[in-house]
Amino acid sequence: MQETILVTGATGTVGHEIVKQLAMQDVNVRAGVHSIIKGENLKRLPDVDIVEIDFKKPESLHAAFTHIDRLMLITPLSEGQLEMAKNLVDEAKKQQVKHIVKLSALGAGASPGIKLGQWHREIERYIEESGIPYTFLRSASFMQNLVNYHTESIISEGKFYMPVGEGKVSYIDTRDIAAVAIEALTTDGHAGRIYDLTGPEAISHSEMAAHLSEQTGKEIQFVDIPEEKARQAMRSQHMPEQIVDAMLELYVAHKSGKSSSVTNTVQEVTGRPPHTFQQFAKDYHECF
After folding, report:
1. Predicted confidence (pLDDT) per residue in 5-41, tens digit
2. CA angle centred on 191, ends 138 and 29, rounded to 5°
3. What are phi and psi of 77, to 5 degrees?
4. Distance (Å, rounded) from C-alpha 249 to C-alpha 202?
5. By the 8 A CB rule, do 22 and 182 touch?
6. What is the pLDDT of residue 40?
7. How many whole angstroms separate alpha carbon 275 and alpha carbon 288?
8. d(Cα 89, Cα 73) in Å, to the nearest integer?
9. For the domain 4-140+172-197, what is the CATH code?
10. CA 121 – CA 112 distance, rounded (Å)
11. Is residue 263 classed as helix, strand or coil in its secondary structure?
């Protein structure tokens, strides 16, 4: 009998990729979305069941978790993410889910670490205390964030802006995070494991700009900006102050070189090397 896997945050950058790759496996895929309308693009995928999850409505959680065998837990970066995650774990326990794979953050185990890591570690501990077998995917920052947050300025100005100086970051392609998630969700031997996931190299943002320029055929520049300017930009997008502070703390880590560690975990788990940034730039060049 086929197992059923629920993916929360299924319309997000990583969640969508996981659903897409899971749809090619011999499992039933249930994609948890905040809005059925936003989940429309998932309906094109074969054998994917779309279910709406409203964290404030317990009945929606119950419906989403009915007959679920495994859970891919992804929560958005928001002020309510801890409550969301705990509600999901509680429901998973009620429904006797066999295994939780959680998308976490690189450095979540550091002490004291940065806020983003602390938040993820709190959720990890809650999962550990639930008694449900788990796997934690502690991921570096995503290459696809350039597509999500910087395409407008790259297209209109040929520039992207961040307060990170020349600090090198071991960015990872979300396709590689998804590939590891698929292994953890569909094969044995991953329970109790914590996987630190990075790309194959640490790269500066100026080097990223050079690769983008090469692949798009137009000049693209990285512009280092002061922290306060970045704060103002995030505030203008109505980002909560707590999240603004956490993002700036992450940028400080990037700038100081604390995000440059590289692991071989993607290769070890999937049997193939992770995508380089050069390959990402080639595959996504039309976005820029």
Report:
1. 999 999 999 999 999 999 999 999 999 998 777 777 7
2. 80
3. -70, 105
4. 19
5. yes
6. 73
7. 19
8. 9
9. 3.40.50.720
10. 11
11. coil
Q: Collapse the DSSP code of 243 into the 3-class scheme (helix H, G, I; strand E, B; otherwise coil) and give the result.
A: helix
H or E element: which one contains 127? Answer: helix 115-130
- Beta strands at 134-139 and 193-197: parallel, antiparallel or unpaired: parallel
Q: Tell me which of 3.90.25.10, 3.30.70.640, 3.40.50.300, 3.30.200.20 is the CATH number of domain 145-169+200-259+275-287.
A: 3.90.25.10
206 and 166 Cβ atoms separated by less than 8 Å: yes
Whether the domain at 4-140+172-197 and the domain at 145-169+200-259+275-287 fall into the same CATH topology: no
Please give the structure tokens belonging to residue 55. Answer: 């964290």
What are the distances in angstroms from CA 143 to CA 51, 77, 108, 251?
28, 17, 19, 15
pLDDT in tens, 90-99: 999 999 999 9
Ordered by start, the domain boundaries in the chain are: 4-140+172-197, 145-169+200-259+275-287
| Cα–Cα separations (whole angstroms), residue 18 to 71, 159, 263 | 12, 30, 21
d(Cα 97, Cα 100) in Å, to the nearest integer?
8
Q: How many residues are present in the chain?
A: 288
Buried/exposed 75-85: b ≥16 CB within 10 Å, e otherwise: beeeeebeebb
DSSP string, 160-174: EEES-TT--B--B-H
- The residue assigned the tokens 């992770």 is 274
Q: What is the mean pLDDT of residues 143-155?
A: 96
Strand pairing category for 159-162 and 221-224: parallel
The four Cα atoms 97, 185, 14, 263 give a dihedral, to 10 degrees, of: 130
